[in-house]
UniProtKB/TrEMBL annotation:
Pfam families: adh_short_C2. This is Short chain dehydrogenase. Keywords: Oxidoreductase. CDD domains: SDR_c. Belongs to the short-chain dehydrogenases/reductases (SDR) family.
Amino acid sequence: MTQPVALITGGATGIGKETAKILAAKGAIVYISGRRSDVGEEAVAEIRAAAAGSGGDAFFVQNDVGDEEAVASMFSDIVSRHGRLDMAVNNAGINTESKTLADSDTQAFRAMLETNVLGVYHCMKLEIRQMLAQGHGSIVNLASIAGLNGIPWTGTYAATKHAVVGLTKSAALDHATQNVRINAIAPGAIHTDIIDASIALGVYDTSAIAAIHPMQRMGRPEEVARAICWLLSDEASFVTGHIMNIDGGFQAK
């Protein structure tokens, strides 16, 4: 059986890293991308440790998904090495402010658009082209409960995640008969390093975040990663254009 090749943007921390661990432990060659090489190389060591004995491996690529030329170079390198890309997770994303729309900052919004929308767009274009050329592939994008709802103090961020949902559903319909599946995950609040940093700065309150979910807690990165890996796999072969809620019951309210 051919060893699968996967790319996870923003794969050095949180949900991306946990997804990479699972895929590598199942024998995949996993490329993770991110802006910080020190964090990326640390993540590679963790992923390789999780993959010990499986035949899986991991590599880090320093990359900014908002830079279309850099993204094209990354894809060219992966495909030249392996001849294909079987799975992709467009996970890189940022949230640069928590304000009402009236008080929001245009430059902060522009930064989120560059990463959260154009970053996904840049990657999806190349992923889909390669997967069509090879005759198969599976893509999972990271949306959010903010991409399905209006949430106070997050209007600009929510707009970017609504865009991810639109890109996902439309591209899934474009290629539904071509053996390329495209889905998205809509997580609730997930307990990552980014959340911890925000809590430490007083931006968020742990109990308040937990309380918005009927399960009365935040999610864990591995809980989202397991769902991503299922959507990527052949076990989800009849699933495309789906936005999966991993949100402790938030969307059921």
